[in-house]
Design a protein that fits this description.
Blueprint: H1 15-20, E1 24-27, H2 32-38, E2 47-50, E3 55-57, E4 60-64, E5 71-72, E6 75-81, H3 90-93, E7 97-104, E8 107-108, H4 112-115, H5 120-123, E9 129-131, E10 136-137, E11 147-152, E12 155-161, H6 169-177, E13 187-189, E14 204-211, E15 216-217, E16 221-227, H7 243-250, H8 253-256, H9 261-267, H10 270-277, H11 281-290, E17 297-298, E18 302-303, E19 310-321, H12 324-330, H13 336-343, E20 348-353, H14 365-373, E21 378-381, H15 388-393, E22 398-400, E23 412-417, E24 421-423, E25 426-428, E26 433-437, E27 440-444, H16 449-471, H17 484-495
Parallel strand pairs: 1-13, 3-9, 4-16, 19-20, 20-21, 21-22
Antiparallel strand pairs: 1-2, 5-8, 6-7, 6-13, 7-10, 11-12, 11-14, 14-15, 14-16, 17-27, 18-22, 19-23, 19-26, 24-25, 26-27
Helix pairs in contact: 10-16, 11-16
Organism: Paeniglutamicibacter gangotriensis
Domain Fumarylacetoacetase-like C-terminal: 34-224
GO molecular function, one term: metal ion binding
């Protein structure tokens, strides 16, 4: 092996380490706890790059740029390559790592939208990759049993073990070496566990990595946040906060103060679900209307499974009108349509905005089958469906706007996922509760789910009482709605156990 990084055991991070770092590579998702927060577990690692000029030593400061709000920390374990690696095997990869140390993958999420996935502006600022303070020799630690902790102002924020890694450090090194030569001195940030969040000027963030069995520790890597005085110039992108980026920065929708898929799942408890599923959609519609919510139905769709009722939280996919050049850049490969279907899971319903366009399919039997295999509750589209007979034969219910033999690109470009969409005349936000059967598709705001569930069970009970009395020959006057006399009879009927008559 050539170009070996040399250094004594437990050497400290200093400028010489930064000078040797030709590139800084970072993993998107690698800890199971973080993947659970994001609602997706990748099959393979994916990466982005940070500028080597973002490297900094322990005790440094980091600016939150003027005009921004969402500077976030991510405590991580950094690997320092010790010998060039090109197309190395997983079995051999760890031998190419010289040191392990603590790092902080800082990023300003106000600029993430402008990066279009590259993270160049959001994560490559000066001081955005502090490392240290001590380098642990890779040969002396167990990479599968390292502990990483992060403190903010002395309070623990992250505490995890590499035992929960989705991808081993060796796999990450080997995978990266397939396409590029990892040079001695290069740095790899290996991802962060759950618990990262937004920090503000004055906060002190500390990260530490330990091999407790070996008695080795990096010590605490300390970084202090300061307020920047320079705003972004008008000739470049300006800071902008989106709900998605805000959730990513804070770690969860609840921490960000945003109703999202996570909030919807929390609202749809087993008790709430059972109550909502026990009543007619018309009853739920009435409860929503009483609260001033009239435009909460997805209209004009057909159901492949007749009257079968489904309920779940919305995952959304938006198609934009077909344009040949855009389809070339967004329609092929692992596009937004395939990504959301691969990420959907139990308790979720795929909702697709197709603008009511019937002149093309929005999915066919293969992707419908994948949605079913992923455990989703249903598919809803206000566009057409290809292979309708095959889709109808699947177990998963599909609500659609008719059959069409044409492929996606004739009318649609799959554009983005987990954003607010318009489907069948109403707006659906990721995490909204959707309940559907052949009588209709309704959207329930998560924060109203529990109170509506209580109300509709009582309303349905009253409707049953009225129906039985009408069936028994009673006239409508005074019964529907019930006057005082009928309410007395109703209360007695409930006390008697709601008998048939």
């Amino acid at each position: 092996m050539s170009n070996e990084v040399t250094g004594a055991a437990l050497a400290r991070v200093d400028q010489s380490i930064f000078d040797k770092a030709g590139k800084v590579l970072a993993v998107h998702l690698s800890y199971s706890s973080r993947a659970a927060q994001r609602g997706r577990t990748p099959a393979f690692p994916s990466y982005f790059m940070k500028a080597s000029s973002s490297l900094a030593a322990s005790g440094s400061t980091v600016e939150r740029p003027a005009g921004t709000e969402l500077l976030a920390f991510e405590g991580e374990i950094a690997l320092v390559i010790g010998a060039d690696a090109r197309r190395v095997s997983v079995q051999d990869a760890w031998s190419h790592v010289a040191f392990v140390t603590a790092s902080n993958d800082l990023g300003v999420y106000d600029m993430k939208y402008a990066d279009k996935g590259s993270n160049i502006r959001s994560k490559s600022g000066d001081g955005y990759t502090p490392m240290g303070p001590v380098l642990l020799p890779a040969a002396s630690v167990n990479p599968a049993a390292l502990r990483i902790r992060t403190w903010v102002n002395g309070e623990i924020a992250q505490d995890a073990s590499t035992a929960e890694l989705i991808f081993s450090f060796a796999q990450i090194v080997a995978d990266l070496s397939q396409q590029m030569t990892l040079k001695a001195g290069d740095v790899i940030l290996t991802g962060t566990p759950a618990g990262s969040s937004v920090i503000v000027p004055g906060d002190v963030v500390e990260v530490q990595v330990d091999d407790e069995a070996a008695g080795l520790s990096t010590g605490r890597l300390s970084t202090t946040v300061i307020e920047g005085t320079e705003s972004f110039a008008a000739f470049g992108n300006q800071p902008k906060i989106t709900d998605t980026d805000k959730i990513d920065a804070f770690g969860t929708a609840a921490a960000a103060g945003i109703v999202s898929a996570i909030t919807g799942k929390e609202a749809l408890t087993d008790d709430v679900k059972e109550k909502l599923m026990s009543v007619a959609t018309a009853t739920i519609s009435g409860a929503l209307r009483k609260r001033g919510l009239n435009n909460v139905s997805v209209d004009g769709l057909q159901a492949t499974k007749g009257m079968r009722k489904v309920i779940g939280t919305a995952r959304t996919l938006r198609y934009v009108p077909g344009r040949e050049d855009l389809f070339k850049t967004h329609g092929g490969g692992y596009n937004a349509q395939k990504r959301v279907i691969d990420a959907i899971g139990p308790g979720e319903i795929l909702v697709m905005e197709a603008r009511g366009e019937k002149g093309s399919g929005t999915l066919g039997d293969i992707l419908a089958m994948r949605t079913q295999v992923r455990g989703a509750e249903a598919i809803i589209t206000d566009g057409g469906v290809r292979d309708l007979d095959a889709v109808s034969a699947l177990e998963i219910p599909t609500f659609h706007n008719g059959a069409h033999p044409a492929v996606l690109g004739r009318k649609h470009v799959p554009w983005d996922t987990d954003v607010a969409v318009g489907c069948g005349g109403t707006t659906i936000v990721p995490g909204d509760i959707v309940i559907a059967d052949a009588d209709g598709v309704l959207v329930i705001p998560p924060h109203l789910a529990a109170e509506i569930a209580e109300e509709v069970v009582e309303s349905e009970r009253q409707d049953t009482f009225v129906f039985l009395n009408v069936k028994n020959g009673n006239k409508i006057e005074g019964l529907f709605p019930m006057n005082a006399g009928w309410k007395t009879k109703y209360n007695q009927w409930v006390a008697d156990g709601e008998p048939e008559f």
